[in-house]
């Protein structure tokens, strides 16, 4: 029995299942017994400070950090899946596998029943570490009776579950996976996502067909060119053979062009119908004209056809489209996943006193709703009982929690920092604060002008110029030189083929793919196609304060004695309360203490041989009833003075550096907040922002942004609160941290993950570089045209020259775009 | 030569058909998962196409 050295991730090399079966005595497993490790020498932990299941730190000599991990380990070993621990690679970026008390979901309403009686459910999975997790989940599900399909998609991090049985089975199956430490959230495929998927497949299918046709037609064409140049055959090939080969080319290419060209034709038609022009108009026109001309040539038995050029062009363009779609689809899917993992159900108190968990949209006016300590309120309502401590930073931008009395109005998105409370839903559907924000967003979006992307701006001038050029060529050859109409038309068509904007149409998408991918790897999700170009033009950055410049959760302000902090954290790590989490975050890696009992909304307590240790509110710890100055926690233990932990707003770690960088980039930086003036002034001076406004309502924020826009400023709005969402929509481009309110994340063009503000700078820099490369690409392709068009007008362009020139210019543009990728690495 | 032409088209056509089939059965939906699945021996149950 040897320890596997390759995967030394704090796990025991277990070649045989451990002796203890499922449900072994809890205490004896939490503290490893000495004889056990003596009889099985291989079971000595490689790194004895990490939990065998979740990999989080544990006290020396212990194997598991908590009973949940022990139970999960037992399940896995009991099913004979112990291989999992040897195969997996823990991902530091993913959520640790420590099982947590799961939210109760009303799964039934997400289940789809198929006509044959099988049930289907899609869930977002949180906590996937690597391929081994996929295997583990699927294997565990496969052992459950009735399961037909349990498949995890690792790209989208979703689990598709289908089983034979009743709706209630869903709870059992989901419970099995959650016991392993994963979090599962019901995920209803939105209409948008389904459409995205369809478009993606359609593009891929078009690409395949274009590729098939391009390969074959090009092969035939090479034969024709070689034959015509006299390289093969006895002094060339005869006109009958050429005609046959042209016919075969036509038969292969034309259906393929009709199919694979649809994405371009549809887009061009839509643009023309709105009396606009985009890059797809010259593409479609070029392809159709070339195909039509080649067909007439084939019928007439002419020498030159250009089917190969037309279909190769479509193939290259489709490659760009598919990659572009894939890159942005991935960013969007990840953004959706982030949102799905945060949605929670609402606990409605039934008339008989029981609790039923329903979706937010199912709450009726007048329903009584229970909000647990540390939970977000799901709907707008009136506080019924319980003097509540509410953190509404995500709703109004106020950074300090407020005490609310019964009868006060509360809004969806507010965090309950106090004890469990009851609210009565007052407004649902169109009357909520959220609905009001959505109306403001829609209004702001209609006022905001349509952004014309650089490619379309070029197309606007390029298309008429090219078509005029072709017309003049025809006129000159027909009237000027006096050749027959057919030959003049042929030369004019050659001009169109040469100018068909292959490289030009690839110039922008190719850059977008590389830049979007680069941002994606950095944790920035670029959702909009035009956002990159809009970002590059930004000259003013407007920040929200609460949750954007400052950390999203209240932070521990003064660092008390390190030992006190550590002791408090060992208790706090057992709680999901926001203040407890901040405390744990400040303490770093801690080992959870045993026997911690949570008193909801009051605090945590633990019995030790010396007496009781308590961590919680002032009254819970018996320190006194005097009202506190701000959010706080107390730690009491026998024989020591009570310790106070103060919480408050703190700027993000790198906020000062980011502001300095933005100023150095020549940007104006403003701060617009809904919070009180003194709080805003304090943060503004700490960060060195001179231009700030406090106490702004959502409407004021919008008018401020629009006022700046009217003066010609290109504004990047960075905000997280629900109150920022209309301003995000009004700005020329917008960004949100992934901790932002759902509505803000949905509106924002860019969502960034992580605790830092730096992504804002990186995104701006990447966008500027991308814009520069786009310009180079456009210059390259226009330069290529400048050389080739005179040759075409002179009538020297043959089909092989056209094909070669077109492909090489496309490859050149793609290679230039890839430089952006390389630049990111160095 | 005519037969060669037909033959090459048929062979390439078969390739195209196989690709379209793989696309329709969802084999391009999870590129990362497939790369990892091969590492685990006892395969989970087969999947029916949607």
Report on this structure.
The complex is a heterodimer of chains A (826) and B (50). By secondary structure, chain A is α+β, with helices and mostly antiparallel strands. Chain A folds into five domains: 26-87, no CATH class; 107-188, Alpha-Beta Plaits (2-Layer Sandwich), CATH 3.30.70.100; 194-333 and 454-511 and 770-825, no CATH class; 528-552 and 652-748, Rossmann fold (3-Layer(aba) Sandwich); 555-648, Calcium-transporting ATPase, cytoplasmic domain N, CATH 3.40.1110.10. Chain A contains 27 helices and 27 strands. In chain A, strands 15-27-26-25-16-23-24 form a seven-stranded mixed β-sheet, with helices on both faces. In chain A, helix 14 runs antiparallel to helix 15, helix 16 runs antiparallel to helix 26 (758-793) and helix 19 (562-572) crosses helix 20. The radius of gyration of chain A is 33 Å and the shape is elongated. With 50 residues, chain B is mainly α. Chain B has a domain at 1-26. Chain B has helices spanning 2-24, 31-37. Classes of the chains: A alpha+beta (826), B mainly alpha (50). Chains A and B meet through helix 5, strand 3, helix 7 and helix 8 of A and helix 1 and helix 2 of B.
Quick description:
Chain A contains 27 helices and 27 strands. The longest helix of chain A is centred in the first third of the chain and has 38 residues, at 191-228.
Secondary-structure topology with pairs:
The complex is a heterodimer of chains A (826) and B (50).
Chain A: H1 26-30, H2 34-39, H3 67-78, H4 83-87, E1 112-113, E2 118-126, H5 131-142, E3 147-153, E4 158-164, H6 169-178, E5 183-186, H7 191-228, H8 239-260, H9 262-273, H10 280-300, H11 307-340, E6 346-349, E7 355-358, E8 368-371, E9 381-385, E10 388-391, H12 393-396, E11 402-404, E12 409-410, E13 415-416, E14 421-425, H13 433-447, H14 454-481, H15 485-499, H16 502-521, E15 524-526, H17 531-536, E16 540-543, H18 545-549, E17 555-556, H19 562-572, H20 578-587, E18 596-599, E19 603-608, E20 611-616, E21 632-636, E22 643-648, H21 655-664, E23 668-672, H22 677-687, E24 691-693, H23 698-710, E25 715-718, H24 725-730, E26 733-737, H25 742-747, E27 750-752, H26 758-793, H27 799-825
Parallel strand pairs in A: 16-23, 16-25, 23-24, 25-26, 26-27
Antiparallel strand pairs in A: 1-2, 2-4, 2-5, 3-4, 6-7, 6-8, 8-14, 9-12, 9-14, 10-11, 10-13, 15-27, 17-22, 18-19, 19-20, 20-21, 21-22
Helix pairs in contact in A: 7-8, 7-11, 8-10, 8-11, 9-10, 10-11, 10-15, 11-16, 11-27, 14-15, 15-26, 16-26, 16-27, 19-20, 26-27
Chain B: H1 2-24, H2 31-37
